[in-house]
């Protein structure tokens, strides 16, 4: 996977992945607010992307399975990086992606795709400067998912929260072994604002203070 450049003026990419109901979207919103309040330039994005391949992936997720869907999501990821993420990073933004590479290592496992295949498929994807993996007690997130309502066919499977939590822990190990900068945040009991502040603190250790950057 491509390493981030060491140009101090460039922005950076932080990805937030984790099981459905862990709080990805909620935490991304809080994180963006915290960074904006510090005077940072922030760009929030998500996968599947809003581009043509992302739209196709969303449309086909109910009916297409396994390797074909994994390739479609990986294609969306490569296109998302080239057309949206990299230009924003080069413009100095902190890009926050609600789902990215780790989701690509996890979700298609529900269709039985081998994690080694998923790794190889995503091997050339831009490496996030910080890959956040949300972790949580499967019972807690199963309750949250039920209250919110499942967003997709994977989340409707019986016991999906337990399985998904396990898959994300394994993905986290793969990323660590490959030398990624990862951060696990347990969201079982912590309010989302607090999880966002933990991520903000980790990011601030990677970038210059706002005054120095201007
Ligand atoms: N730390 C938390 N404590 C309690 N409820 C939460 C917490 N984080 C998120 N929620 C709630 O759980 C549901 C799922 O959150 P969401 O951000 O959509 O998760 P995800 O994007 O990971 O699927 C939402 O109804 C949200 O308000
Ligand atoms: C990024 C990615 C998403 N997906 C699918 C899973 C979902 O159907 C959809 C993401 O939906 P989303 O609404 O983000 O789910 P949630 O808010 O519950 O986390 O995209 C994959 O199957 N593979 C991937 O690599």
From TrEMBL:
Keyword Metal-binding: no
Major enzyme class: transferase
EC number(s) stated in the UniProt entry for this protein: 2.7.4.9
GO biological process: dTDP biosynthetic process; dTTP biosynthetic process; dUDP biosynthetic process
Keywords: ATP-binding, Kinase, Nucleotide biosynthesis, Nucleotide-binding, Transferase
Coiled coil regions in record: none
UniProt cross-references to InterPro entries, sorted A to Z: P-loop_NTPase (IPR027417), Thymidylate_kin-like_dom (IPR039430), Thymidylate_kinase (IPR018094)
GO MF: ATP binding; dTMP kinase activity
Pfam families found in the cross-reference section: Thymidylate_kin (PF02223)
Ranges where the Thymidylate kinase-like domain occurs: 16-181
Catalytic activity: dTMP + ATP = dTDP + ADP
Keyword match ATP-binding: yes
GO CC term (a single one): cytoplasm
UniProt-listed HAMAP family: Thymidylate_kinase (MF_00165)
Function text: Phosphorylation of dTMP to form dTDP in both de novo and salvage pathways of dTTP synthesis.
Family: Belongs to the thymidylate kinase family.
Protein name as it appears in the record: Thymidylate kinase
Organism per entry: Amycolatopsis echigonensis
Gene from which this protein is expressed: tmk
